[in-house]
Each structure stands twice: as C-alpha cells, then as structure tokens.
Amino acid sequence: MKKVSYLFVFLILAGTTLSAQTKYYTVKASKAEKVIKKNNLIVLDVRTPEEVNEGAMTDAINYDFKAPGFKD
User: Fold this and answer.
1) Do 61 and 42 form a contact (C-beta atoms < 8 A)?
2) Which residue has the higher pLDDT, 10 or 63?
3) How many angstroms from the chain centroid is the CA of residue 45?
4) Residue 62: exposed, middle, or buried by beta-carbon count in 10 A (0-12, 13-18, 19+)?
5) Domain ranges, residue 54
6) What pTM does this model have?
7) For the chain, what is the domain count?
8) How far apart are CA 6 and CA 17, in angstroms?
C-alpha cells in the first residue's frame, strides 16, 4: 500500500511539473499575419457578431459560439 501511495504522489508531482513548463508568448499582429499566410493557416474566430464588429482579422472565419446549434 505504501508503494502505491508513493507512486500516486509521484504521478501528481510529475503532472504538476510538466504543466508548469508550458510557455506562452506574445506575438505582434504583423508577425502572426506572416506566419498565418506562410503556413496557409485558417483562423477560426468564435466571437459574437457584436465582438467581431469591434474588429476582426480580414480572412478569419467567424462562428458565433452563442448561436443555436453551435455545439452540434
């Protein structure tokens, strides 16, 4: 039983350590645009129409996540 407890603690600590290694970067819009075009990526914008009206990327595809049937 003691070995199982140690294994359980080890797995929890290992998972915590792995998630702590995640890094986030801030990317300028101009750099993001270059990467998107170079790699032929699709940008999916899941904001409401009101949010999109405040500003959106030119080629982004918009789906209103609050619209009926969105989860389907």
Assistant:
1) yes
2) 63
3) 12
4) middle
5) 25-72
6) 0.51
7) 1
8) 16
Let me know if residue 42 belongs to a domain: yes
Classify residue 61: in a domain, yes or no: yes
Q: How does pLDDT run across 18-58, given as a tens digit for each residue?
A: 555 677 889 888 888 888 889 989 988 888 889 989 988 88
Report if residue 38 sits inside a domain. Answer: yes
Contact call for residues 47 and 65 (beta carbons, < 8 A): yes
Whether residue 60 contacts residue 44, with contact meaning beta carbons closer than 8 Å, is answered with yes
Kindly report which listed range (10-14, 47-51, 60-64, 67-71) carries the lowest average pLDDT score.
10-14
Token pair 């959106």 is at which residue?
Answer: 56
Domain assignment present for residue 57? The answer is yes
